[in-house]
Structures are given as structure tokens and as C-alpha cells.
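Ticket #4471: structure output looks truncated?

Reporter: J.K.
Steps to reproduce: submitted the chain below (75 residues) through the standard prediction queue, then opened the result file.
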Amino acid sequence: MIVTPAMAGFLRLKTRSAMVFGGLAGTVSGVSAGLAATDRRLVPYGALVATFYTGLGCLLGPSVLFLIVKMFAGN
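Returned output as attached by the reporter:
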């Protein structure tokens, strides 16, 4: 969130790269704030992908953790 405006020139943030940035950075609040400080038009693109990956992690995380614990516990 803090480094995004400083690194925007290096990252060459445009529409497609904002989507990649949103997927890599992770949290919706951090991506939205960083992109809003850089260019307000990029916020929906980054936030959309960050929301998707956060939701995917929340859905798959418990199931994958359960299977790993079950594998190591041997039950």
C-alpha cells in the first residue's frame, strides 16, 4: 500500500498489470489503497483479482489444511 505509488513507474501499472498486481499483492484493502494513490482508474481491476484470490483461499484453505492434517495423522 505504501510502496505502490513509488514503484508504479517501475511496475508500469496499466489495466492488465494492475490485475496481476492485485493477484500478487493479496489483500483487497492494500491493493485498493495503493492503486488509488497511483491512479484511481486502476482500483477496480486490482481489487477484482485480489477479491477473487482472497475468496479462493478462504474456500480452499480449510479443506486443504484438513486433508494435510488427516494425511499426517493417519486416520
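Triage note (M.O.): checked the attachment and the full C-alpha cell line is present. Residues 4-73 form one domain.
Status: closed, working as intended.
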